[in-house]
Every structure is written in structure tokens, then in C-alpha cells.
Amino acid sequence: MRPFTSLIVLFLGLGMFALSAAGDTPTAPSQSEGVVASELLLFEDIPSVYAASKYSQDVEHAPSAVSIVTAEEIRTYGYRTLGDALAGLGGVFTTYDRNYTYLGMRGLGRPGDYNTRVLLLVDGLPTNENIYGAAAIGNELCLDINMIDRIELIRGPSSSLYGTSAFFGVINVITKDVTDFDSPQLSLERASLGTTKGTLTYGKALPNGVDLLLSSSYFDSDGHDELYYSEFDDDNVTGGIARKLDQEQYKRALAKISYKTFALQAAWGERDKSIPTAPWGVVFADSRSRTYDSQFFIDLKHEHQSSGGLNLLARLTYLGYTFDGGYPYDYSEDEEPYIVVNKDEDVGRWWEGEAHLIKNVWAKHRFTAGAQFRASARAQQKNYDEEVYLNSRHRPGYWGIFLQDEFVATDRFRLSLGGRYDQYETFGGTFNPRFAVVYQPALKTTCKIMYGTAFRAPSNYELYYHDGYYSTKPANKLDPETIETAELVLSQKLSQSARASINVYTYRVKDLIDYGEDADDELFVFENISEVDGRGIEMELQGRVLGLGSGRVSYALQEAKDATTGEILSNSPKYMAKCHFSMPILQDKLQVAAQLGYLGPRKTVQGGEVDAATITTLNFTTYNVSQGLDLSLAVYNVFDVEYYDPSSTEHTQEAIAQDGRTIRLRVDYNLGL
């Protein structure tokens, strides 16, 4: 695929939106459910954003570059996971190694980094776990996508409010509440690769003022019957084929109870995945190669707004994470079979606490002040087979305090200034500021100028993990990664239903933590090995297209390179382009949605390159086929394109093949009880 394919996607979108803007006149919205779903994708219908400042504000006034995905957009485009929804946004891409899904932003997507450079919030609660520091965006997430009301992506550094991992951005997943369900709802899915999923949800506003919401889901997939890897085609046993080793299952549950100013929320999920790719040098095509993840949290939150304009939020949360990994190794000698399964067992339990106040002062200032802490009750890493090699029980914690002021000088000029200090047991203290100017020179034009720094604390895994000094050793001391970012955002409302935006940024990452080999003993170890320079431009148009439906088109040009060598980083695409369009037909009973995504070539860790790919998805959704019944049919990778993602250092393969064409049928039924 030629690189200028991305430009073709962009210019097609530009032409459609130009025609839309030229002939646009205000129209009364239809009341049919199909059209309503399409209208909710328009910018003016998007709800306010919370995560940019820890309070709700208009997107145009937020001191950050903001993207939002609504529940209707999730349904309209057939997104299956949080990673799917994020990958639909401009400048964002994902990588899948047939075990986990990894997020890339602003040109940086280090293979196998467990999403440590983004902070994942659920209703404002930080959920990155205390072993790897990972943000779960695939099927390992304990929250089902059917329960997401909207997703907020706050681009750029946000450590001034959130501390560690708010490096390239903050993802805030806002869950649905009882108002979204007037009766029990059942969702059933059947898809390619022997995939079945079911979700049951119940919501009720009780007469005593208590709101109750319960949901559970189950997923089972056989995966590919056969996956061929030429790197292992060197024997007469497997022929390089992994048979029936792509299975995946998960279970999830969510409960929300609220009464007046108090809310109790609990979520739990477990996921079991077979690994067909034989990472870490394990025996190829052995069914004992698999991973198990489990997450949960129990969150108690109190929010109160006084008559004097003082807002208070206080929350206390108990969270848990469990990981089990099985890795079979062949120690056979003299033709005597001797397979040993090496095991990783990680258990994390920790408390999160936060309290912050928001107060309007002197008519033009809004102050946000607060404190946060994490206290690890357990952070155990264990590696063993016939003997125990590692049994680490380090329990580092931290605390932080933050302050931010939003100064509304005039209706058109706002200034946001804030900072946060964090204190860690492992490396000491760090302070991170953020500064933003939001100026509206005209009613339909917004300009944002922003500067900020952020950090990522080294994880327990990076600091202490080893396998008995067989191939890896612990780092013991690492400095935190830091980033310094400057960016400019311009937003223009072109018409009643069309909007354009452009985001230009530059950043410098220092003390990047990466996996490398120590020349002295040839053991792998995590080190602060390099600095990274990044820059890019992200453009987007969205709105109503030719009066037919709604859509958006985006284009990203970006570069992330080693500051010392000048080499472009692995898994860093230079070009990305995406086009989304949805429209109602058949008297608004059927919604048709298409998305086209182009991802440019990417270097591999081994120095090669994976080709660019253009992937198309179609989703057909019916509304009210009969009373309370909706149907949808999605076709992913419509043209069955063969494409690959770069692998990480633990793989023998240079690149991992992705799924071809797959189909999903979904049935949603309102039980009406």
C-alpha cells in the first residue's frame, strides 16, 4: 500500500465536509431512534469533559486536546473493546501480539510496554495496577464495553493533576448508570472464530432513593484453529503450525449502588488466554503456554456541593490484580523428553485514596486543590518451576498533592495553571507543572497553547523481576521517565454541523526505560537507556456529511526518534489516516456505518519493517425490529487484508499476523420486566 493512500483518505473526507458546510442549513432533528444515534456523533451533541480538570467543563474550554467516544458511537461502529474505540481516534493506534493489546500515541508505541505511559481511569478512579503499572485496554479489562457511557481521551501530559503514568494521555472511562436502563437488557453475540458472548444488565431506581445497577458478561472464543509461523517450521512435529492455541475466555461483573451523595461501585473480571506465538523461548505449540489475568476494585465515593459553591470529592478504593503465566521449556537430553513449565505468579493488592476541593474565588478564579495516596497491601512477584527463583514482596507506595487555578479573564480568554508534587519511596520527589491559555478570537474559533511535564515511575516489574539470573536480572535502581511537551490546538466551527481542528505538538522524553542486554554478563535488564524526540500534527474534521449522515476524517503525521542516534523508533508509524461515516436508511430503521483506517509502515525491533495497511469495517444496526429488539451485523477487515504488527523482544517472530475478515452478529433485547 502506497504511503499517499492516507492522503487520499484525508482529501475524500475534506471534499465531503466542504460540500456539507457549503450547503448546510439548520434542520429540526428527527425523533426516530436511528437518526438520534447518528446525531449523537456530532460535536455539538458531545457531553462536557471531566478528566481534563477534575470537573465538568465545555470541551472548547478544557486546557487540553480532548477526544470523546460516546456509547452511541461504540454501538454504531461495532467497537468490541476499549482498545477498538481508542484506535478509532485520530493519531492513536494499537498493536496486538495475540496475547495483549498495546496502545500507541504520538508516534510512540514501545512493543510490549503494557500501556504504562497512559493513565486509565474508571469514573475518575486510577486503575493502573501495582505490579506492571499496566492499563488494560483489551479483553483483560474488568469492565465490559456495553457498560461504557463515554470515553474521554485527554491528550498530552497530565501529571500536574494525576501523577504517574499520565504521560502521553489520560483515558477516563465513564460508566452507564441506572438512567440508561428502564428494564433488564440482554445482549447476545455470535462471531467468527467460534466466538460467543452474553451480557445481562439490570437497573432500578428504588422508591427509597437508592439507585441500583448490576451487570455481568461472559465471553468464549476458540480462536484460530491453526496459526502458521515460519520461524518454527524446522521440525517434523509441528511444521510451524500452532493448532487450537488461540483460545480466550473472560467473565466480568459490575455493581453500582448510589444514594444521595454517596456511591459504591465494584467491578471484577478474569481472563484466560492461550499463547500461540511461543514467546520467551518456550516450547512451540505447547498448550501449557498461557496467561491468566484477574482484576477487581471496590470504590466508595462521596461528592457534595455546598450552597456556597464549594465542591468536595472524597473516595477510598481497594483494588486487586492477579497474574498467572505458564511457560513450558524443553530441557531434554539424550533424546529423553524433559519439559518443565516455568510459572510467574503475581498478586497485587492496594488502597487508593483521594480528596479534592473545587471552589470559585473572586468571581473569576476556580481553584482545585487535593491530595492522593497509594498504599500497597501486597505486591508479590514469584517465579518458579522445580525451585523458586524469585519471591519479591516489595510494597512501595506514594502520595501526592496538587493545585490548579482556572482564571477566566474574559468570556474569550482563560488561563489554567497548576502543578503537583509526588513523593515515592523508591526514588524520592518530583514536581510537574502544566500551563494552558485558551483564547477565542471569534465566536466559532478556539486557540489553545499548552505546556506541561509528566513522569512515569518505574514499576515493580522493571525494578525487581528476574528468573534466577538465567536470562534476566533485576534493575534495583531506575530513575523515573520524564516528558516535556508543548502543543498548539486550533479549533474552528465551519457551520452548524461541521468542525475542524488541528493539533501541533513537540516533546522530549528523558530516561526512557527499556529492556536491554548488559554487555558485562549478557543478562537482560531494564535500564534508563535513551532520550526520545517527538513531534507531530493531528488534523480532524467532523460533522454532518451532505445531509445524509454523520462522520469524521482524521490525519496524523508524526515522528518519534532516538535523540542520540536520530533513528526512528520501532513500531512508530509516520502516517495515519481514518475516515468514519454513518447514515440511517430504510425510514430510519437501519443504520449503516463504515470506518476506514490507514496505518503507515512501522520498523520492527529486529530492524525490518511491516507494510502499511488499510483496514475497512462495516456495521449494520437495526432499531426496534420488534418491540425492544435491536440487531447488528459487523464485518471487520472487510477486504480480508493480510497485515502484521511488529513484535516485541520476547518473540522469535519479527512480526505477528493479525486477523483477516471476521463477522459478528449481535442481538440486544429489552426484556421489559
TrEMBL record:
Topology in membrane: Multi-pass membrane protein
Keywords: Cell outer membrane, Membrane, Receptor, Signal, TonB box, Transmembrane, Transmembrane beta strand, Transport
Gene3D superfamilies: TonB-dependent receptor, beta-barrel domain (2.40.170.20), TonB-dependent receptor, plug domain (2.170.130.10)
Record-annotated TonB-dependent receptor plug domain positions: 59-170
Species of the source: Eiseniibacteriota bacterium
Pfam families noted in UniProt: Plug, TonB_dep_Rec_b-barrel
Signal sequence segment: 1-21
Record domain TonB-dependent receptor-like beta-barrel: where: 277-638
Compartment annotation: Cell outer membrane
Primary localization: membrane
Family (UniProt): Belongs to the TonB-dependent receptor family.
Protein name (database record): TonB-dependent receptor plug domain-containing protein
